[in-house]
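Sharing a chain and its predicted structure for anyone who wants a worked example. Both blocks are below, sequence first, C-alpha cells second.
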Amino acid sequence: MSRVVGLLVIVVLCTASFAQTIRGRDGITMPPPPVVESQPVIDNYFGTNVTDNFRWLEYPKSPETRAFINEQNAYTTRYLKQAKIRNQVVDDLDPLEHSTRWSIPIQRAGNYYFMKRLAGEEQASIYVRHGSAGAAGKGQGSAPKDERVVDPPSLSRDSNTSITLSDVSRDGLQVAYEVRQGGADEATVRIYNLTRKKVLEDEIPAGVYYSVFFSPDGKGLYYARTDAKGTLLYLHTIGTRNSDDKLIFGREFHGELLGPIDLFNAEITDDDRYLVITIERGVPPTRVDICFRDLKKPGAPFDVLVWGLDSRFSASYLRGAWYVRTDYSSPNYRILRADPGIMPEAWKTVIPESKDVIEDFNIVGGKLYVKRLHDVKSEISVYTPEGKPTGQVELEGIGSSSNVEGRTTDRYGFFSFESWIQPPTIYRIDTLTGKREPFAEPKTAFKTADYELKQVFFKSADGTQIPMFIAGKKGLKQDATERLLMTGYGGFNVSETPTWNPAWAWWLEQGGRFAVPNLRGGGEYGESWHEQGMFGKKQNVFDDWFAAARYLIEQKYTSADHFAISGRSNGGLLMGASITQHPELFSAVWCGYPLLDMLRYQKFEQGPHWTTEYGSAEKKKDFEYLYKYSPYQNVKPRADYPAVMFFTGDSDTRVDPLHARKMTALLQFESKSGRPVLLHYSTTGGHSAGVSVEQQIQDDADQLTFLWTETGAPSKTRQTQTHPADQP
C-alpha cells in the first residue's frame, strides 16, 4: 500500500511557461497562461519518492481551485475568441447536430415505444407508435402517427435535462424513465401512466442505476442501484413510499460478500418465469456470475446458473432452455445450452467458437441472432435454437450494427446500422421471412456518396498486425498536405467500430481525413486482444497508437504538422501518453474527461472499479508499471509539447476532473514549445451524454475550432523524429 511519509510544502510562485508569449496557429497570439502556485507533496511508494506539485487542485470546492478554474476558462475563452473559424464551425454543425434521431423501439401490447428527437429540438422525448411499425411513406399511405409521451421541457426549464426510456409495462400502459441533469451519471427514476396521461408521484431518488424494469403484473418496479458499497436490487410497489421498497438481492450470496466493484444488473425472462441476476466483477469484469429465481414459486431462493469461474457469461432463456454466451475456454466466445447445477464442460455447444469474435447474441422470434466482428466489421448470422444456420442479416457494407433487438416471442425485431460516413438508420426485420425495411431514417445534409471508408492493416512495435479505418472525401490528395484527425480508445474490452458522429462528419466535410486504429485492449478480436492491453501490458496500446500515427505519416495521408488527435476517458489516458511519450508526432491534442494521474486514480469517483483493468499503485508490482507510463508523472521538464486542450466539467462523476486540472497546471509550466495549453472546464457538464443539442454544438465547436486551427499553417522546418526502438 502506498504511504505518505512526509508533506513538503514549499510554495513556489510559478510564472507559467517562464512568461513566454504563446502563439497558436492562424495568427493567434496569447499571453502566458495564468500563474499557478506549486505546493509540492512527496509520496513514498515502496521506496520511491514521487512529487506532486499540484495536489491542492484535487480539492474541487476550495476557493483556490475555483479561482484556478475561472482563470483557466477565461484564458481558453480568449483563445477561442481569436479563432477565425469558430463561427463557421457553429453554423456548419447546426444542421448536422439538429437532425431527427431515434432509438430502437420496445414492443409492448402491439405498440412501439422509443426515444425520438426532432430536428431543432434540444432533447429527445419518449414516443409511442400505435400499431404500424413500418417505415413512413413506404407504400402505406400516410405516415404512422407517433404520440409524444414524455417531453423533457415539461420536466425542467434547463435544456440540459435529459430523459432515457428504461422499460414499458407488459400491458403498454406505463413507462419507466430516468431523468438526468447535464452529463452526470446519476439519475432519478419516474413513471408515466398512459391511461391517466400523467407522471405518477412515485420517484426513485438520484443514483446510478444499472437496471430499471416493471414486474410482470405492472404493479411494481425493480431497480438495481449502485453506490460506493456496491449494488442492491429493490422492488418498489407503485403508489407506496420508497422507504417500503423491498430488498430483493443484497450484498451476500452463495457464501460470498459482494463488494463495491461487484456490479450487477437484473431482468425478467420474456415468459415472466424467472428473475435473473448477472453479477459483473469489476469494470470490465474479470468474472461474471449468474443466478435466478423462479417467480412462480413465492419465496423461492435464488438458484445458480454459473458461479465462481474466472470467465464472462451472459444468458437468455427460451422455452425451458438456457442459452449462454461465454469466453470460458473460448476467448472469441461461443454459445452453449446450459444446464443449472453442472459445470460448463458438460453443456452442449450450440454455436462454436471461430476466428471471428461473437460480440453479442439475442433470441428474437424463437431464432438466435448472433452478432460477430469480422475484422472489426459487423456481421449478423441467424440460427435455429439447435444451432442450425438459416441465413444472414443484410447490412450496408463497412459499419456498425446493433444486434437484432426484441423479445423471444416477438415476430419483428429491430436493429440499427451506421458508420462514420453514414448516419444511423433503424430497420425492422421479420423473423419469419427475413425481410427487412427501414423503420426510421435520418435526414441530414451530409452526402454519404461523396465519401469513402476503407480499412488498412499495419504492424505495431512487436510485429502485431493492427487494423485501422480511414475515412475521407473521394479523390483527396495523398501528399502529406491534408489535415487528419485520429481518435482511439484501447481498453475495457470496448470495440471501436465505425459509428456516426456529427463532429467527425464536419471534419470530413472540410476536407480532412479521419482515422481510427483498433488498438489492443479493446474487444475487436476477443478476450486475448483485450488482455494484451491490460495491466502491465498497457504499453502495447500506446505502441499500437504510435505505429498507426507513423503509418499515416509514412503513407502521406498527413504530416505531423497537420496531425490532430482526440480521445476521452480511457482515450484521454491515451492522449496523455501521446503528449508525454511522442509529442513530436502530433500538432494538436484534445484530451477529454481524462485519466492522467494513474498513481491516484483509484482513490476518486468510480476509480476503484477500474483496478481490474489497470491495477493499483497500492500494490508494488502495479506501481512499477503504472509509474512508468502515468502521464502526470512523466511530463518532462522544459520540453516541446504540441498544442493541447483539456476538456472536463464539474458534473463528471465518473472520472474525477482533478486529472485535467492538475495536468493543465503542470503542462502549462513545463512546455517550452510556445504552443497553447488550454483547459476547457464546464461548471455544469459531465462525462455522460445528455446535454442539450445546442450545448453539444458549442462544445464540439470549441473542440473542432482548436484542432482545425492548430493543424493549419505548417512549419517548413519541423521534422518528425523517431527512435529506432519504436519502429514497427
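Comments welcome. Residues 1-17, 135-141, 717-728 have pLDDT under 50 and may be disordered.
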